Amino acid sequence: ILPRSQWRKAPSAALVDEDEDAVPDVNKQEANEPSVVPDNSDDRATKRARLADGSKSSSTEPEFVNPADINADDEDGEPTARVVGVIRRNWRSYCAFLDPNYVSKGARASNAPSLVSVLAMDRRIPKIKIRTRQADVLAGQRFLVAIDRWPKESRYPQGHFVRALGSAGDKATETEVLLLEHDVPYQPFTQSVRDDLPAEGAQWLFDPERDQVNSGKRRDLRSLDICSIDPPGCTDIDDALHAIRLPNGNFQVGVHIADVTNFVKPGMAMDQEAAHRSTTVYLVDRRIDMLPELLGTNLCSLMSKVDRLAFSCIWELDPDANIVNVTFHKSVIHSKASLTYEEAQNRIDDP
Fold first, then answer.
1. Which residues are CB-contacts of 104 (< 8 A; sequence separation ≥ 6)?
2. Residue 218 forms beta bridges with which residues?
3. Which of 103, 128, 298, 338 reaches 20 to 30 Å from 347, CA-CA?
4. Do residues 64 and 5 make contact, with C-beta atoms less than 8 angstroms apart?
5. Residues near 246 by Cβ (< 8 Å), separated by ≥ 6?
6. Tell me: the pLDDT tens digits for 111-150?
7. pTM value?
8. Where do the segments described as Disordered lie (predicted)?
9. Is the alpha carbon torsion for 295, 296, 297, 303 positive or negative?
10. Is the dihedral of CA 61, 66, 72, 76 positive or negative?
């Protein structure tokens, strides 16, 4: 972080000219400074920071500001910094397509690769130069490219072709592009993950001894009138509820969440994969599950008419809805109905 005297006084919407000629030779400005940036890199963030700074190199190192000393309400201006080194490039494979300005050269006399520009789907990425023998084939295609280097004398980075995705405009191709660009893991679950599923598969049944009801570590709530309320066609029912009037005039209200931890233990391959995926992703024509289907839509889905393991929160409320008592415990439930929103609303409205 630069000294306060060099902080930007007000945020600026101005953009630095991207033209190479407009960027000063910072290598000469910083000739006296040690650098951890590779010689063949062109760190534009460094150039922008130094250009915005406007400071000249000097033989004495300026006194930098400790980030811990910065007050959010500081009136000295907007804290300004400069890049002193690149630890690791945040480069990945990019979905791209051939530059629309590409003109086919027809049949070539030799099989030599040609240098073409490709445009990344992510508009923040500049054109990428790649050498390929199949430029004509790539026209109208979506494909993956990887950046290899960005020479300091070049305006654009250089990369290479990774693999083809399919024709532009094709639904399956564009869906894969969408998933890749948003870094959504969509590959099938590996065998090591599937090995963590219950050996009984879909035939798994609740067992009072194995599932710790007999030992008292899990409460049996199957006698309660518990139901779930979800959109029509929902298969991954992860919560259910009940409400009853108690003899003392108060109400008991319970919320029951599917006990996934009974099947997914810390450190398991399935646990690590779920942490990597972090959520189930819904698209118009498909869903990409966080957990294998056996758990997500079956054993860990609080469907009606079957015994399911849950984690329950039970409140006791007085007639004014003040909380009198609350308990938390593992449970086994037997939902009496899987209601849709419309079905639940009809019951509320029916006198």
1. 135, 136, 139
2. 330
3. 298
4. no
5. 252, 316
6. 678 889 999 999 889 999 999 988 888 988 999 999 999 8
7. 0.65
8. 1-77
9. positive
10. negative
